Structure formats: C-alpha cells, structure tokens
Amino acid sequence: MDYVTQLRINKAKQLMGQGNERIREIARQVGFSDEYYFSPKFKQQQGVAPTVYMKSRRHRVATYHTAITGQLLALQTIPSAAPLDPKWSAYYRQKYAGDIPVHLRDPFDATFSIFLAHKKGPYLLGSEGAGSVLYDDLGLPKPATSPDTKEKTMVLLTLEGITTINPDRIVLLHPEGGEQSYKDSAVWQGLKAYKNDHIYYLPANPYYNQAYMPLGKELLLDTLEQTLNK
C-alpha cells in the first residue's frame, strides 16, 4: 500500500506541474476518495501541503548548478530545469527526478580562464572586474594549475604559459582585431578549449573596460549567460 500511495503521489505531482486543476480533482484522478484524505498523505510524503507544492511549481526557474538547486529546494521551489547528474546530485535525482521536467547537464564541471589580449601578451584576469564576474559572481572553477590571482587584478603570461594552465573553456577579451593573432597561433590552436570550440571572443570594450562598474558587470553576466549556453 505504501508503494501504491507513492505512485499516486508521484502522479499527482506531475498533474500539479502541468496545469491549474484543483486539488480535489487531482486527488480523484490519482485514486484518492477526497482531498481531505489526500492532503495529509501528500504532506507526509513530501513534507509540504499540496497547495504549497502547487504554488512552487508555478515558478519557471532553471538552475545550472547543483548547489543552487539545493538552495531552491530548501525554499520549497522546484525548478523547471536543473542538472541531475547521477554522480554529483544523486540525492536530488532520486527524490526530484519526476518533479523536474527538464534534466540539464551541469556545465560547471569544466574549468574556466578569462584573458585580456594585450600587446604585451595575454593577461590572466583575477580578483577584480571581469575576472570577479566569472569567479565570484558565477562561481566558475579555475584550473588547478592557474596562477594565484587573489591579490592581483591580472597576471601577464605568454601563450606558452597558457598551455600550462590549459583550461577547458576560455573567455578572451580583445581590442578590435586583436583576437586574430591568437587564432592564427599554433600554440593557441593546440589548447583543448580551441579544439573543442570552447573559446569565447568578446570585445574588450565594453566587457573589460566597464566590468568594474555594476552596469558593466550586469552586461557581462547577460552576455556570458547567452554565450556559454550555446
């Protein structure tokens, strides 16, 4: 009977996420005699009342990181789309796989580096400006071999120096036309980010020049969201 009840509750959750039917109609569709018997059973299984659950399903929210998924679930908000990788989020997958319609891949397993193309060479951006957008605001991981930039806004490297970091994905901020010398370089072409088409070229103006100001950060965040999800 516990198994049958769980099946009915799971089906009820699906119906709650699909439309605006009343609780009593959903209860009858899944085999409960009335909503007054259904509601305590639902709360016993899910920890929240059916009305609270239905309200949470009206939010159309997508998350791209298991940590954010966990924060939303703690607030009784079930995302419409979230990563449910069996390795990194096995608990969420087991408990909420039927509640979250779209299962995403978590892109943040990849490491990221952001560089500024300069006539002196590539600068690895660190603790301020555009670097802080990637690492502080988005929480993207750096490669383990990345130089320490906690107390520096940027570190000057060579192209060969980038090969020792070899991130999975690269954001290159460049002056107009300044990206071409990188694209033509055999060293640049040997990077795994280049081979996997995971290098994102953005103009230094405005994404570097304005990234120290709130509006500039917001612009970079919006652009990265669109760029990284392609």
What would the keywords be for this entry?
230 residues; alpha/beta; five-stranded mixed sheet; two-stranded parallel ribbon; 7 strands; 14% strand; elongated
How would you describe the overall organization of this protein?
The model has no long low-confidence stretch (mean pLDDT 84). The longest helix has 15 residues. The chain has 13 helices and seven strands. By secondary structure, it is α/β, with parallel strands linked by helices.
Q: Could you provide a short overview of the structure?
A:
This protein has 230 residues and is of the alpha/beta class. Helices cover 46% and strands 14% of the residues.
Number of separate strands = 7
Low-pLDDT stretches are: none
Alpha-carbon distance between the two ends? 46 Å
Q: What value does the average pLDDT take?
A: 84
Q: Structural class given helices, strands, pairing?
A: alpha/beta
Proportion of residues in helical segments: 40-55%
Strand content: 5-15%
Counting H and I runs of at least 4 residues, what is the number of helices?
Answer: 13
Radius of gyration: 24 Å
Largest sheet: 5 strands, mixed
